[in-house]
Amino acid sequence: MSQALYLKWRPQTFDDVIGQEHIMRTLRNALRLDHIHHAYLFAGPRGTGKTTTARLMAKAVNCLAPVAERPCNQCELCRAVNEARLMDLVEIDAASHTGVDDIRELLEKVNFRPIQARYKVYVMDEAHMLSTSAFNALLKTLEEPPEHVIFVLATTEVHKIPATVLSRCQRFEFRRIPLADITQRLQKISLAEKIEAEPQALDLIARAATGSMRDATSLLDQMASGGAVRADYVRQILGTERREVVQTLIQAWLDKQLKVGICTINAAVDDGADPRQLAKQITDFLRGLLLMRLGAGETWREPSTEERPRYQKLAEQATSAQLVQAVQLFSGVAAERRSGWQPQLSLELAFIAATRPPESAPVAPEMRARAQEQTAPAREKKAGPASKPAKPTTPSPPPAAVPAGDGSITVQEISSRWKEILHYLSAPLRAPLWSTEPLAIDAESALVLGFRHAFHRNKAQESSVQPLEAVLNKLFNQQIQVRCVLKDEWTPARTKTALQPVVKPETRAAQPPEPPAPPAAHGAEDTLVKRAVAELGAVVREVDA
């Protein structure tokens, strides 16, 4: 049985470890100066060399060669580590040994001297999985360890390690390996293993590994089992899409060409692209354009030298606000865990929403109230001391934090502020509501929203209705329920012209006094007359025929 490539090509010296030069330099200096610490903590993403470096430390501190040549991989102790037969190297999977009894059993053997080597090295992988009791049991030994013992704790979630443990370890942060370094190593492995691989295929594998050298090597091993490693084959297996498709979508977004973008998305999905993977690639590309737009393009390491001028021109075609909105929309699609019967629908909605021009953020109700207070004295002075204070003029759109006049809220008022209302919601919650419109207020005093498609209605009912009700309740200062219907199936049976408010107790004192009820008259039932009485202080008089 052949050996897996990631095991066969595991680094055997400090020089073989790529992407972590800052850590390798520090460890080699410590070896050279004989400043060996009793406990190390290696933290970072998976596949970046934490466990490999722990084994290198076990070899280096016990190697029989001169200090400058350690580890030599030639002496008996180095060969014993490479062949996994050194009894003084103890590797523990903390994910399966989480209990305090496991740690106590381990610590009982700590005080015994090494059998073969100079140091007994304990490597604890996924150390964050230990229980609180296990950490407490380990703590005393970490604080006062025997002089012949070295602990190396490796973790992908350093925030779960207790502070008392962190303070007793030398901490090293492993970084994601740069794309260029992964691609170069894959080329070296392909040549040595006589694997025929296209450069573009290796680039796709390196990108899919997201900074993990182990994942990249395993993917290369998988692709090589089918023969020559071709780019089209890698795309088919990984469900990734050509960079040209991503750039076509970005250009369609910049040119506001909805048809081109939707057709490109559907063609890519029909060819086997995974919508979430495609959304992830779009997000990565948009992030890079945003960095360029902000003048930090040098931190985007993926483009080649030849590609950067073209990408810089793309970045200049959009504003920072447009790029931020697009990144938020597509990253929401990439983070979805489920897809419905139309897997590309979320991607299409994100593209449509991103193509819309970003509107200015709505003015907060508190700011509107302050503007009213500032304009009220001027209006009162103009009206004169004997006249009734007029209602202050408000900026557009009109404020509605507290119902004005008789307190009724009409469908027309909600419709006029619909875009502003939607901007109080996050992008994923807002997406299903872009194509809807307020239709009426039904007999149960609920706001009726009309949808063109059942999918959008169901999506809104599942996730958007409750946040929307909360926004409406805050803006209009009353309980407003929302009912979602299909436009084609809805018939306006019994509706109300307005929602009657339920004023909150704390705001009741702030309400203006109710105007005196006008005498009953034929015209008093007219809506315009009502608003004139309530807002302008008009008086209805009967006129003899």
What is the gist of this entry?
This protein has helices spanning 5-8, 21-32, 50-62, 76-82, 100-107, 132-143, 163-166, 179-193, 199-208, 213-224, 231-238, 243-254, 258-270, 275-293, 308-316, 320-334, 345-355, 365-383, 411-416, 418-422, 427-430, 454-463, 465-476, 505-508, 527-536; strands spanning 39-43, 89-93, 120-125, 149-155, 170-173, 409-410, 437-442, 446-451, 481-486, 495-496, 498-499. The chain has 545 residues and is an alpha/beta fold.
Comma- or semicolon-separated keywords:
Zinc Finger, Delta Prime, domain 3; Helicase, Ruva Protein, domain 3; 47% helix; 5 domains; Rossmann fold; 5-stranded parallel beta sheet
Folded structure, characterized:
The chain is of the alpha/beta class. It has 5 domains: 5-173, Rossmann fold, CATH 3.40.50; 179-238, Helicase, Ruva Protein, domain 3 (Orthogonal Bundle); 243-355, Zinc Finger, Delta Prime, domain 3; 365-384 and 397-508, 2-Layer Sandwich (GMP Synthetase, Chain A, domain 3); 515-545, no CATH class. The protein contains 25 helices and 11 strands. The strands form 3 sheets. A 5-stranded parallel beta sheet has the order 2-3-4-1-5, with helices on one face. Helix 12 packs across helix 14. The protein is elongated, with a radius of gyration of 34 Å. 31% of the residues are buried.
